[in-house]
Amino acid sequence: MNRKPLKGIHHVSALTANAKNNFEFYTKVLGMRLVKKTVNQDDTSVYHLFYADERGNPGTDLTFFEIPRAGRTYPGTNSITATSLRVKDNEALQYWKERFVQLHVDHDEIQYESQRATLSFRDPEGQRLILVSDEGNKGVTGGIPWDKSPVPKEKGIIGLGPVHLTVSRPERTIEVLTKIMGFREIASYKRDKDQKAVRVFETGEGGTGAEIHVIEETELSRERPGRGSVHHVAFRVEDAKELEKWQAILEENHLPNSGFVERYYFASLYFREPNGNLFELATDGPGFEGDEDFEHLGETLALPPYFESKRKEIEAKLTPLETN
User: Fold this and answer.
1) Are the beta carbons of 281 and 246 closer than 8 angstroms?
2) Alpha-carbon distance 137 to 88, whole Å?
3) Which of 57, 161, 268, 308 could pair with 143 in a Cys bridge, judged by C-beta atoms 3.0 to 4.6 Å apart?
4) Closest to 12 measured CA to CA, from 40, 51, 46, 53
5) Cross-strand partners of 132
6) What is the spatial distance between Cα 281 and Cα 243, in angstroms, rounded to a whole number?
7) Domain ranges of the chain
């Protein structure tokens, strides 16, 4: 079937047990913009928060579902074990290292992995994050940091970088990535902290915003997710017509999937790769300005039109969250 390549990473969705503290860290420490405060459309009793560049351009969104009673994460295999966030250059990483020291953010030293400067760190719930330098990047372009961020614009986060998958049987995941999803293997490297081999795959224009890094881990049990874990990674498709083509491809390859799912801000399709990680394909549009104007993104509870009639009922179940 004549379909376009996936364009890169669309968003990553993770879990938090405390929306207020999550908002404080991602907006005031990391300087990302909350572009949408809404609810989990599969469980409207909990928040879904979208942090991104100035307007939530595709490839810049790190999102969180609030699960107030979420327990701790027990790290393991068959999971999404790190999410990267792109910054402009190596100099920006020095700024972030100093900022993390000043603000007491748990972090490692700057390292070079896959020929890029990186800085690993954790949020207060143990979310595993990596700042990655875009210096020399020739692939997918980054977004535009919000000019009202507490972080200087030239040092700001410009989007999502490589997503790390840790799996027990890598050949099964790699087969889906390459033979079905159209990724190509381009490199490998040894991870500094434990010398484990990492295989690098890219799609579309390639580069920092279009990579998956696959790590084999056979000695640990499956990760038990909780606060600070990742729920799924989404990949970019152009539009709904392309999404329909991808659904047909998945079905031709006997991969069970959700079928077309309307999310209002984008359309989606979900499936699990053979090691159990949840993948989503999501359209680049229509975006986040259909129900809020640019200047006021994320300030009030936004609900898709099909939930608007239940607003009072939904709001009654949510703990108020001040975001403006």
Assistant:
1) yes
2) 9
3) 57
4) 51
5) 86, 118
6) 7
7) 9-317
3-state secondary structure of 322: coil
Phi then psi dihedrals of residue 103, to 5 deg: -100, 10
Q: Pick from 24, 22, 52, 49: which is nearest to 36 by CA? A: 49
Name the nearest CA neighbour of 266 among 67, 84, 63, 65: 63
pLDDT in tens, 85-117: 999 999 999 999 999 999 999 999 999 988 899
8 A C-beta contact, residue 92 and residue 154: yes
Show the DSSP H helices in 219-288 as ranges: 240-252
Q: What is the mean pLDDT of residues 263-275?
A: 98
CATH number of 9-317: 3.10.180.10
Residue 23 amino acid letter:
F
DSSP labels, 85-112: EEESSHHHHHHHHHHHHHTT--EEEEEE
CA atoms of 308 and 220, how far apart (whole Å)? 45
Question: Of 298, 315, 316, 294, which Cα lies nearest the Cα of 22?
Answer: 298
Please state, in angstroms and as integers, the Cα–Cα distance from residue 244 to each residue in 4, 175, 181, 239, 257, following that order. 12, 21, 14, 9, 12
| Res. 226: pLDDT tops 70 | yes
Distance in angstroms (rounded) separating the CA atoms of residues 220 and 234 = 25
Beta bridge partners of 257: 271
Q: Which residues on neighbouring strands pair with residue 15, listed in sequence order?
A: 65
Are 227 and 16 a contacting pair, CB within 8 Å?
Answer: yes
pLDDT band at 40, cuts 50/70/90?
A: very high
pLDDT over 70 (residue 170): yes
What are the b/e assignments for 197-217, b being 16+ CB within 10 Å?
Answer: ebbbbbbbebbbbbbbbbbbb
